[in-house]
Every structure is written in structure tokens, then in C-alpha cells.
Amino acid sequence: MVPFAPDIDTHLEMEIQFGPAGITVIGEVKGDTFPNAEVFIRGRGLNKLLFDYRTTADRNSGPLGLAGANETTSLGTFWHQLPLQ
Description:
The chain has about 80 residues and is an all-beta fold.
């Protein structure tokens, strides 16, 4: 990034519930709408994409929206039930 460029802010709220069949992962991603964002969960025998956000902005207009933390701008939610191995 160029000097004095604003931070790229991404906020993840996630809950993991353990049950007899595995885990349930529920969450929401908030923050800047540029650039793209992904959320993964990884562990022993577990590698899963939980969330994939694709911006609609291009490389010229996208950085203009980075000012502020955008803590209330929802990029989307996810819910996954995953077996434990």
C-alpha cells in the first residue's frame, strides 16, 4: 500500500458449538467492502472454506471506501455443520 493509506478493516464474529455429531460454526463478517475476504477453519483433518466475499469495486474505486472501520457493514453470514474426525 502507499504511505498513509487507510487500514483494511475486517471484523469476524464467530460461534462454535460442539455436539455429538461434530461442530456447528456460525458467524458474520463485517468491515470494508474492498478487497475480497475469506474465512477458513483449519485443524487436524479439517480444512474448510466457511465464507467467501467478492467485492464489486475495482482497483481504482475500491480503495476510496477504506476510510473508517466500517464495523457495522455486514459482508455476509455463514453456518456450517462439520463432522469431527
